[in-house]
């Protein structure tokens, strides 16, 4: 078969055209180029943005300048949530095919609030790629080549923390910041720094570290310490050459150690805090709540910083404002706490390791939360010297430990709860006497060598009144066993064990047992507040409100809202019967009023106290002498105004819970006078 040569030629040409045009690379559209640029912009990929600029734009600005200008401006204004949307595209169908115009909308959050604007962008076709004709106006429309963006930060005033009468517990005070200016120090500077360290009770090494820090320059002010304006050390500092003083508003804690663990303190953010908070408007050198209520109420106390973003020309003359937002000061927090009572209780504890929780027994208002020993929170505001930090950490009494937030074995302070639930479940008759002989008792031989021990065997016949008055461990161990595990756990649980107290403060949760009641020995020990029973001081005082409020446990209240009157709010309703609550109170009065009562040393002429003492022994091993924790819980019964739970560690050899009696007596006398 003959093939036409002309046909073969045409077929070859046709195939060649398909190959050429099929392999030809398809050019990206101007819209694709625009979207790629906006994506890089929104992600802060400034180097990629620069690579997408037109030749003319690159000739006008170097890559380093372009990247640095974008990053410094956006960081300076704390830009976040940058959102850039393509609004329209304009193509000249009949004109220049190498230029297209786009409209974009830019929106971002800044230190001065939200900023948004519209901008027009021209894309040009260069070497088969679409490029951006960039100008500084892309950053902000008002911005020109020689202009600069300036930021003015408007700091919010941190809210105060005040007590129930308006007395300050944390506020912002004008003080004097003591510093040195390196170039003004005499040569050699050693003698001056030594004298300065002596005046400020610091160390030469600490001052030298600050003077030689990497950021310091010869004419810089180097902060060393902060003093009150009336501090006599100020004059001594002023006499030293090379020192300088300037005013500074700082956080102040007037109650010092007395309210340290309750109020807490503020300090400069660390790296982890900055990483967590920078997207919430915080600046890197901002102070934040580090402990206590300063930390709990950080968001409310801090307020919202304001700011102003504006443009200046090459001569520094202001051209216009981009955005402005006023600072909103933080909210003051008013506590139900009584500052005078807080201080009074701390003075009773300051030579001991202990804790206290005081509440109004009718309203549940928290009047004091105290932990001792404590630290001076003012030291944290300006920086704790290494020597002081070491002293705190090496102190065996652990002043940095917040004891009122922890749980402890309540010992005999738990017995009124056992008594109340035993009465309500008809496990005991309050008048029925148990025959108890000797100081030790065990149920039977299955207990092996384990015995329940009572402090005194003065009473051989023990009823409920004597059991409470003499604090008889055997009586309450037998009562718990008669009640049985299931009923004991269920009824005691009604007092809020295993639950967080309804207060805005991180407190350890009180527990009756770790996981389960292991055996009868643990049940017996639990009946008199040992075993695995653990309670925090505020829970103990809150639980006792059932005896004052006809069987209802009031809800503890720590913060008083503006204009809010004190009123009772029930947390646990009808945990015991009203008649049971009255009977327990009558018996607890005898703990103080009776000459044989364990709380007799707290008796106050003209004041009727109901109370329960307790000593919990913490043994490391069987047979070994253990550490003892002393408790004293008391409330006045006529016009009840104060319910106090006081705890002191290491009372062994000091009279056990009797060591607390004069302390409780002093607090009530001062508060009720």
CATH topology of the largest domain: Beta-lactamase
The biggest beta sheet reads: 5 strands, mixed
Assign the CATH class of the largest domain: Alpha Beta
Strand residue percentage: 15-25%
Q: What's the CATH H-level superfamily name of the largest domain?
A: DD-peptidase/beta-lactamase superfamily
Can you describe what's shown?
The chain is of the alpha+beta class. It has three domains: 30-145, NTF2-like, domain 1 (Nuclear Transport Factor 2, Chain: A, Roll), CATH 3.10.450; 161-333, Ribosomal Protein L30, Chain: A (2-Layer Sandwich); 341-392 and 414-672, 3-Layer(aba) Sandwich (Beta-lactamase). The chain has 23 helices and 25 strands. The strands form eight sheets. Strands 6, 7, 8, 9 and 14 form a five-stranded mixed beta sheet that branches. Strands 16-15-25-24-23 form a five-stranded antiparallel beta sheet, with helices on both faces. Strand 1 and strand 2 form a beta hairpin. The relative contact order is 0.08.
Identify the notable features of this structure and list them briefly.
673 residues, alpha+beta, Nuclear Transport Factor 2, Chain: A, Ribosomal Protein L30, Chain: A, Beta-lactamase, five-stranded antiparallel β-sheet, 25 strands, 31% helix, 23% strand, elongated, membrane
Task: Provide the fold topology.
Elements (H helix, E strand, L loop, with lengths): L4 H19 L6 H14 L2 H6 L3 H6 L2 H14 L3 E12 L7 E12 L2 E14 L2 E4 L15 E7 L6 E2 L5 E13 L9 H11 L3 H8 L10 E6 L5 H6 L4 E10 L7 H4 L1 E4 L2 H7 L9 E5 H5 L1 H5 L3 E7 L5 E8 L7 E2 L4 H11 L4 E6 L6 E7 L5 H5 L3 H9 L20 H10 L9 E2 L4 E2 L10 E2 L7 E2 L1 H6 L3 H11 L1 H9 L26 H8 L9 H8 L8 E2 L15 E3 L5 H16 L15 E10 L8 E10 L6 E6 L12 H12 L1
Parallel strand pairs: 6-14
Antiparallel strand pairs: 1-2, 2-3, 3-4, 5-12, 6-7, 7-8, 7-9, 10-11, 12-13, 15-16, 15-25, 17-20, 18-19, 21-22, 23-24, 24-25
């Amino acid at each position: 078969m003959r093939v036409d040569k002309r046909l073969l030629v045409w077929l070859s040409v046709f195939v060649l055209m398909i190959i050429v045009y099929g392999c030809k690379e398809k050019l990206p559209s101007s819209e694709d180029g625009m979207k790629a640029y906006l994506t890089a912009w929104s992600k802060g990929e400034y180097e990629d943005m620069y690579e997408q600029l037109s030749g003319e734009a690159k000739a006008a600005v170097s890559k380093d300048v372009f990247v640095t200008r974008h990053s410094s401006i956006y960081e300076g204004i704390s830009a976040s949530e940058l959102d850039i949307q393509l609004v329209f595209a304009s193509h000249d169908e009949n004109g220049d095919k190498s230029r297209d115009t786009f409209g974009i909308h830019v929106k971002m959050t800044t230190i001065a609030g939200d900023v948004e604007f519209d901008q027009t962008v021209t894309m040009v076709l260069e070497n088969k790629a679409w490029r951006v004709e960039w100008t500084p106006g892309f950053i902000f429309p008002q911005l020109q080549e020689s202009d600069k963006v300036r930021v003015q930060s408007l700091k919010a005033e941190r809210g105060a923390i005040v007590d129930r009468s308006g007395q300050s517990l944390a506020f912002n005070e004008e003080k004097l910041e003591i510093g040195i200016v390196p170039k003004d120090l005499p040569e050699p500077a050693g003698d001056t720094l030594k004298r300065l360290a002596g005046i400020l009770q610091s160390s030469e090494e600490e001052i030298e570290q600050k003077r030689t820090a990497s950021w310091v320059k010869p004419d810089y002010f180097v902060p060393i310490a902060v003093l009150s304006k009336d501090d006599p050390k100020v004059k001594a500092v002023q006499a030293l050459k090379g020192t300088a003083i300037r005013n500074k508003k700082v956080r102040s804690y007037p109650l010092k150690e007395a309210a340290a663990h309750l109020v807490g303190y503020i300090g400069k953010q660390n790296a982890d805090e900055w990483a967590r908070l920078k997207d919430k408007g915080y600046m890197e050198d901002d102070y934040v709540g580090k402990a206590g209520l300063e930390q709990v109420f950080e968001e409310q106390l801090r307020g919202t910083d304001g700011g102003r973003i504006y443009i200046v020309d090459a001569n520094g003359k202001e051209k216009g404002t981009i955005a402005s937002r006023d600072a909103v000061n933080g909210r003051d927090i008013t506590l139900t706490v009584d500052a005078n009572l807080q201080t009074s209780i701390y003075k009773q504890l300051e030579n001991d390791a202990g804790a206290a929780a005081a509440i109004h027994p009718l309203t549940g208002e928290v009047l004091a939360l105290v932990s001792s020993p404590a630290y001076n929170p003012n030291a944290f505001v300006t920086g704790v010297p290494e020597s002081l930090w070491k002293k705190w950490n090496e102190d065996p009494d652990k002043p940095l430990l917040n004891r009122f937030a922890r749980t402890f074995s309540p010992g005999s302070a738990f017995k009124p709860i056992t008594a109340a639930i035993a009465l309500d479940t008809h496990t005991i008759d309050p008048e029925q006497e148990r025959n108890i002989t000797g100081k030790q008792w065990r149920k039977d031989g299955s207990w092996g060598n384990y015995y329940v021990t009572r402090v005194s065997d003065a009473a051989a016949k023990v009823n409920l009144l004597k059991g409470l008055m003499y604090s008889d461990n055997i009586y309450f161990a037998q009562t718990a066993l008669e009640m049985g595990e299931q009923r004991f756990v269920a009824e005691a649980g009604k007092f809020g064990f295993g639950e967080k107290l309804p207060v805005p403060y991180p407190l350890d949760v009180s527990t009756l047992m770790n996981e389960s009641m292991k055996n009868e020995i643990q049940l017996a020990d639990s009946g008199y507040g040992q075993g695995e029973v653990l309670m925090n001081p505020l829970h103990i005082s809150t639980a006792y409100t059932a005896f004052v409020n006809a069987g209802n446990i009031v809800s503890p209240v720590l913060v008083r809202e503006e204009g809010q009157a004190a009123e009772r709010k029930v947390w646990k309703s009808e945990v015991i019967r009203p008649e049971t609550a009255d009977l327990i109170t009558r018996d607890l009065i005898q703990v103080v009023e009776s000459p044989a009562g364990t709380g007799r040393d707290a008796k106050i002429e003209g004041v009727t106290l109901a109370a329960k003492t307790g000593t919990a022994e913490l043994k490391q091993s069987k047979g070994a002498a253990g550490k003892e924790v002393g408790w004293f819980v008391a409330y006045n019964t006529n016009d009840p105004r104060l319910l106090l739970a006081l705890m002191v560690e290491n009372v062994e050899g000091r009279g056990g819970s009797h060591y607390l009696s004069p302390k409780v007596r002093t607090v009530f006398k001062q508060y009720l006078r």
